[in-house]
């Protein structure tokens, strides 16, 4: 295995350089043979996720004289950027599976998607490619409530982040339409579950637009339809809507100062230390296929921006020695660099994710269509989408959302929901096999938006992560999270079943392992939520939502050591020029679907980097 080399002081640097020169020469030769250029850049982005797509695009435009590179594990995933994989099922036209809104929540189950799954996170499904995991798992656009930003540093509050998000959406509005009716004909499809549940909850919850979660609703519960971003052709808009200014229809850069190394992985951030012990990036070691090569940045002014997602960024820092499990306490930078010691202590120490529990139901009073399974043989629906960009394939999976404030741990603010129930127009497991209109079964998932459970992110020497214990763990925080979800799910099921809806999978569902439970009894619902599963072939609780945050968190203020990153410069504490720009910065869970906040975070990153690079 390659040993990580650390350049400590000038003498050590020269000694190590003499030792590794033959190795670097061999790597350069291998890279040249593979057609992989090496070079020096002013800024290197590691990962092209949603946040860094915004930051990169703005930085390329603001500094056309700077040499900027991005290294991404995957490639383009949108047809507008020249992608053909992961391929959409036959009959949907010249689209990738990422392009088609109706395939939003089924991406992980497509055989074609295996090629874009990141092997560094085998315990969950994280996608590679332009736009990052948000290209697969990010669709809903929401501005979180003000309560979600309590504890964030100055300049990162609700008003500022909402402003950045709206700024990005305004800029992308030429091609991205934010709407609750994404079908080109302006109609909503697959509405059977929505119609059924709206009828059930219209006397106990307020109907409202749910784009801005802080809007005054005056109710403990709010329901509505998800807002999403689509093109005029009813295809998913991000990250194409952001990257279109710097990438062409073939996925190649159109900006002269940008170079993209796709299908390439950064295996280490190479650093050195100043005489004062400040760590500075010297470049990155990159692997593409069987070749390895090095990209460098200028010693005094160069920047490396880590933007590989909350899991990938923490794992890369671990591989590069910035992690309590891999840092050598005798390293000179750590021995007298208190800020760096603080950063190392926080990297990967407290990952969080939304957690959920699901059920399947039917409401007999509302039978007669409006249900849709995109995995079935829906030839008519495919033809409608292919020919008119309309129909249920233009509709994102979730068709109804109910936002609730639980009583055990309600956050401050009268309208800050902490549990979302989102509803898909198909069932769970084998119950999802029926085609459009042939089934009246839908699934509902209670998702904790503000969980208390945190866990260290396990990372091995190769940068491969392992399952973190944040999904209802056996701890006071995990028990609290479970109680919150149980309370809201119990109220939901009690109300729905009292109105005549029937359990198909979940507490009280006949012919299942939970037939003996009563969906109207909270203790029975608690027993269901607590069960790890799978049961009857269905995973239903302790569900991973892939909304990871907090692995490289912002400190509360410049100079503070209670995080890993300076909020004014986005530099890892104790370093100069090593920055972070992705969801790992969030010091607490984002109390909504994270896509809107991540867009705003990208604009904030771009503004920060533009300021820091203004003298270069």
Task: Describe the overall structure.
The protein has 13 helices and 19 strands. It is α/β, with parallel strands linked by helices and about 625 residues long. Strands 5, 6, 13, 14, 15, 16, 17 and 18 form an eight-stranded mixed beta sheet that branches. It has a five-stranded parallel beta sheet with strand order 8-3-2-12-19. Strands 1-11-10-9 form a four-stranded mixed beta sheet. Helix 2 links the parallel strand 2 and strand 3.
Helix/sheet category: alpha/beta
Total beta strand runs = 19
Give the biggest sheet: 8 strands, mixed
The overall pLDDT average reads 85
Helix fraction by DSSP (H/I, runs of at least 4): 25-40%
Strand fraction: 5-15%
Terminal CA distance: 38 Å
Total helix count? 13
- Spans with pLDDT under 50 lasting ≥5 residues? 1-36, 327-332, 408-414, 432-438
Rounded Rg: 24 Å
Q: What general form does the structure show?
A: globular
List descriptors.
15% strand, alpha/beta, 5-stranded parallel beta sheet, disordered N terminus, 13 helices, 616 residues
Write the layout of secondary structure elements.
Layout: H1 9-33, E1 39-40, E2 43-46, H2 50-62, E3 68-71, H3 134-137, H4 158-172, E4 177-179, H5 192-201, E5 206-207, E6 221-224, E7 228-230, H6 240-243, E8 258-261, E9 265-273, E10 279-288, E11 291-296, E12 303-306, H7 309-319, H8 332-336, H9 338-346, E13 355-362, H10 379-388, E14 400-404, E15 419-424, E16 441-448, H11 476-498, E17 502-505, H12 522-530, E18 543-544, E19 578-580, H13 595-612
Helix pairs in contact: 2-13, 4-13, 11-12
């Amino acid at each position: 295995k390659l040993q990580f080399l650390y350049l400590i002081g000038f003498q050590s640097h020269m000694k190590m350089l003499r030792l590794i020169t033959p190795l670097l020469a061999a790597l350069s030769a291998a890279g040249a043979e593979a057609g992989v250029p090496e070079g020096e850049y002013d800024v290197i982005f590691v990962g092209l996720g949603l946040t860094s797509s915004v930051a990169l695009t703005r930085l390329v435009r603001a500094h056309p004289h700077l040499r900027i590179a991005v290294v991404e594990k995957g490639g383009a995933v949108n047809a507008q950027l020249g992608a053909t994989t992961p391929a959409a099922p036959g009959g949907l036209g010249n689209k990738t599976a990422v392009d088609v809104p109706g395939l939003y929540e089924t991406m992980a189950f497509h055989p074609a998607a295996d090629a874009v799954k990141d092997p560094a996170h085998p315990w969950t499904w994280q996608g590679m490619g332009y736009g990052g995991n948000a290209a697969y798992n990010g669709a809903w656009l929401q501005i979180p409530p003000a309560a979600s930003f309590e504890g964030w540093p100055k300049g990162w509050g609700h008003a500022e982040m909402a402003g950045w998000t709206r700024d990005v959406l305004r800029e992308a509005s030429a091609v991205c339409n934010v709407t609750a009716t994404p079908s080109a004909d302006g109609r909503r499809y697959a509405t059977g579950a929505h119609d059924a549940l709206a009828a059930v909850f219209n006397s106990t919850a307020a109907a409202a637009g749910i784009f801005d979660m802080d809007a005054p609703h005056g109710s403990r519960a709010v329901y509505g339809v998800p807002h999403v971003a689509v093109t005029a052709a009813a295809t998913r808009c991000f990250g194409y809507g952001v990257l279109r200014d710097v990438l062409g229809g073939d996925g190649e850069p159109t900006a002269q100062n940008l170079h993209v190394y796709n299908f390439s992985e950064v295996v280490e951030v190479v650093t050195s230390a100043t005489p004062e012990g400040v760590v500075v990036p010297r470049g990155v070691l990159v692997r593409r296929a069987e070749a390895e090569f090095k990209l460098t940045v200028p010693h005094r002014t160069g920047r490396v921006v880590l933007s590989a997602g909350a899991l990938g960024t923490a794992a890369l820092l671990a591989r590069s020695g910035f992690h309590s499990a891999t840092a050598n306490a005798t390293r000179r930078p750590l021995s007298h660099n208190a800020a760096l010691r603080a950063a190392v202590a926080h990297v990967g120490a407290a990952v969080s994710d939304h957690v959920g529990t699901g059920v399947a139901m039917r409401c007999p009073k509302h039978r007669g269509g409006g249900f849709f399974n995109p995995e079935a043989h829906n030839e008519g629906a495919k033809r409608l989408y292919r020919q008119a960009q309309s129909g249920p394939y233009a509709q994102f999976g979730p068709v109804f959302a109910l936002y609730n404030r639980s009583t055990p741990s309600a956050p401050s603010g009268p309208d800050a929901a902490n549990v979302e129930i989102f509803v898909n127009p198909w069932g769970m497991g084998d119950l999802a096999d029926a085609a459009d209109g042939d089934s009246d079964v839908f699934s509902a998932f209670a998702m904790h938006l503000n969980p208390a459970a945190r866990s260290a992110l396990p990372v091995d020497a190769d940068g491969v992560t392992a399952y973190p214990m944040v999904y209802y763990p056996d701890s006071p925080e995990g028990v609290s999270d479970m109680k919150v979800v149980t309370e809201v799910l119990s109220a939901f099921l009690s109300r729905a079943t009292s109105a005549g809806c029937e359990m198909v999978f979940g507490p009280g569902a006949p012919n299942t392992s939970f037939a003996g439970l009563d969906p109207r009894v909270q203790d029975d619902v608690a027993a269901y939520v607590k069960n790890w599963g799978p049961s009857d072939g269905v995973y239903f609780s302790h569900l991973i939502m892939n909304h990871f945050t907090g692995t490289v968190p912002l400190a509360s203020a410049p100079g503070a050591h209670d995080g890993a990153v300076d909020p004014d410069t986005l530099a890892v504490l104790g370093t100069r020029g090593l920055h972070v720009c992705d969801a790992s910065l969030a010091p607490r869970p984002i109390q909504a679907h994270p896509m809107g906040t991540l867009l705003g975070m990208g604009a904030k990153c771009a503004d920060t980097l533009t300021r820091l690079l203004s003298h270069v």
